[in-house]
Amino acid sequence: MTEYLNPQLKIQAKKEVNLLSEFDLERLLYVLRKSLPFIFLIILFSGLGTFLFLRWSKPVYQAESRIKLEFKSSSDLLQLEVGMFQEGIDAINLAGEMQLLKSNSIYDGVIDSLNLYVSYFVQGDLLSDERFQSTPFTVEYRYANPDMQDRNILVKIINEDQFRLSLDSENPEEAPVYTFSELIERPGLKVRILKNGSLQEKDLNENFYFVINSKANLYKYFDQNLEVAIDNRGANTLRISFQDHNRTKAIDIVRALNQNYLVKTIDNKNRVYEQSLNYLNAQLQITRDTLDRFEKALERYSRMNKITIKEDVSQVMERIREYEDAKLELRMDLENYEKIEQLIKSDSNTVYLTAIASLIGNTKLNELLDQLYKAEQDFFRLKGAYKESTFAFQQRKKAINNSKLELYEIIRLQKNFINKQIDEIRGEIGRLQASLYQNDQEDNDFKKLTKSYEIYEEISNIISTKLIEIGMAKAGTVPNFQVLDEANASSVPIYPVPVIIYAIGVVVAMFMSVGLVLLRYFMQNKITRVKELEKLIEAPILGVVPSYRKPMEYSQLVVGLNPKSSMSESFRSLRTNLDFFSTKHKQRLISVTSTVSGEGKTFVTLNLAGVIAMSEMKVIVVDLDLRKPKVHLAFNHSNVEGVSSVIIGKSTLDKCIQKASIPSLYYLTAGPLPPNPSELIMSSRFEDMVTELKEQFDVIIFDTPPVGIVTDGFIIMNKVDLPLYVVRAEYSKQTYANSINDLYHSKNIRHLSVILNDVSLNSQYGQYAYGYEGANGYYEDPPEMTSLWQRIRKKVIQ
């Protein structure tokens, strides 16, 4: 349908086509081939950059530990009824414990335990290596003001006894010499450097330096490298990880974190217990003072009222108190045995059982508990490796049950024995209390005193019981966590990982290469091949001219140098295609132009004229580029006289026309540059000159200025029989096609034809060879060129 469209509409339709939005596989392959050297450089630099990055990046190691938080109170584990005293002791949560682990109070403990106030380094060629606990010297600093903190202090060991010490802003070679263990006093700094054993020879060649770390810098260091995360919320487990360039340091810091967290947890819990114990001790003292007052009041009342009792009241009261204390201790032992029995039944941790048993002091019980602990440990070791049905598994389980049965038996015997002792004590207390009431006529006031005494005595017993229970809870204080995985770090650093870094390098190189190709593809606005040119223009394509590989300072006549070359063959093809135009018109006047300078119009003019002259036709090349002439350079002739001289009448054609090296080929140079080239070409004298040339030559070829710069070329194109338009591959922009279409349609230059110049024979993207030299020395057109010539000739005939 497009064949029937108006030519103007065709041009408009072509202008509206966005060539960048059309995917062109051939153009992409062409750009890819052109980009191969750059892609190779990208891959080379990417690989080199990856190698250097891995070579000079300091490895980062990560130490990890997992802990499980215990939310059950230690008093609950011991089954102590401490009531209100346990509130707040074990009320923990995951978020709170995470904040505690990342608190400055924990950091301070780690810093003190590992002595991180001073860091030691060895200078390398590009990087420095930290020497954690492996330096030949140790720094003891007594004072360092803020200006001396967080900066490098260089130590250059001279020999076994001496060294130089300098700041990072000083020249190490001019630094003062000190001896080991000497107190060094400098402005803002007091330090002593102690030698760690004998120095090795390599230590004398190393450049050491140390840094006195400020608290703020250490806190920042911990915050940046420490990570505390929830490992399993359901199991209340936390994962503690620390990253550092030194693997040993990372492991030690995680271990110190666990240890300081343990101490901090126990301290926090014991602080509450201490407050409770202090309060109860104060209340117990008040109660006992009150008991003493009642005891003295009873004794005084007995003497005044002459109450007869078998024994002195004070002695009786003292013995009753002793029996009550003994009864209380027995009752506590009884409760402890009962708690142990309950904990055994609930399969509680043996640690808590041992803590309670230590309060009783029963040797046999401790031995049985130790036996149970070993049996449980043996059982847990086999539990993960053996099935329940195996003999080894059943044997370990049976050993645990036997140990528990023995414990139950000794507990039962001890409970019976304690109950008997308690009954005996109760009997003695009853007898002593009865001795206070021998007289049936006792005074009612005496009974009141006795009753008050008994009440305070009971209060004293209760407080004493609570003191013992809280003391037991404090003695059995355990941390709120247990370490599931001890701190450890892999010997392989977590960063950089060579596989990942190389993969990133490959991906980066790939993306950069693809980006480069796509960028060049979308920025490719040059005409490179005939198919592309056919899509852009309406004018027929006369032919193509291959690239001339030999360097030329200016355009040359080369068709006569090697008649069998591809260059000569291409111009012979152009000459053949010109014959198709001669079927309707006698073509004598030919003009050659281009859009801009540098597209090869002069080169095409010269060699087309030379090839036509070889066909025994008399041809002349006329240089009408009166602004920038070049024809005289091609023939190595002066430009003193020429076209401008003939037109203004200062010379004649016969005097200005020169003969070329090819027979029947002549040329006429431009002559002196005139101030008004366009007026000269439009003058009647120019017409007279052309008429005179027609009488002498068969073919006249004008080399005209670029039409995209001046109008001279357009004026000539209207005067000739066949205007030729040169487009240079990989040089002329696609937008130049608009000028060609405008000339072909709007300016009504109907016989306009286009020549594609400087096409690379080696490029598959623009492969338009004109033949190849075979074994017999003749040329043939390959199938691709046969198709090309058919398309060109069809357009020319049309």
TrEMBL record:
Main subcellular location of this protein, as a coarse class: membrane
Keyword Nucleotide-binding carried by entry: yes
Coiled-coil ranges (or none): 284-343
Glycoprotein recorded as keyword: no
Cellular compartment(s): Cell inner membrane
Domain of life: Bacteria
Pfam families in the record: AAA_31, GNVR, Wzz
Every Polysaccharide chain length determinant N-terminal domain range: 22-114
Domain Tyrosine-protein kinase G-rich: start-end pairs: 463-521
Keywords (A to Z) from UniProt: ATP-binding, Cell inner membrane, Cell membrane, Coiled coil, Kinase, Membrane, Nucleotide-binding, Transferase, Transmembrane, Transmembrane helix, Tyrosine-protein kinase
Enzyme Commission no: 2.7.10.2
Residue ranges constituting the AAA domain according to the UniProt record: 588-711
Gene3D superfamilies per record: P-loop containing nucleotide triphosphate hydrolases (3.40.50.300)
InterPro entries cross-referenced by the UniProt entry: AAA_dom (IPR025669), Bact_polysacc_biosynth/exp (IPR050445), GNVR (IPR032807), LPS_length_determ_N (IPR003856), P-loop_NTPase (IPR027417), Wzc-like_C (IPR005702)
A GO MF term: ATP binding
Enzymatic reactions: L-tyrosyl-[protein] + ATP = O-phospho-L-tyrosyl-[protein] + ADP + H(+)
Any one GO CC term of the record: plasma membrane
First-tier enzyme category under EC: transferase
Topology term for the membrane: Multi-pass membrane protein
Membrane-spanning residues: 36-56, 499-522
The family this protein is said to belong to: Belongs to the CpsD/CapB family. Belongs to the etk/wzc family.
Protein name in UniProt: non-specific protein-tyrosine kinase
Species of the source: Rapidithrix thailandica
Phylogenetic lineage: Bacteria, Pseudomonadati, Bacteroidota, Cytophagia, Cytophagales
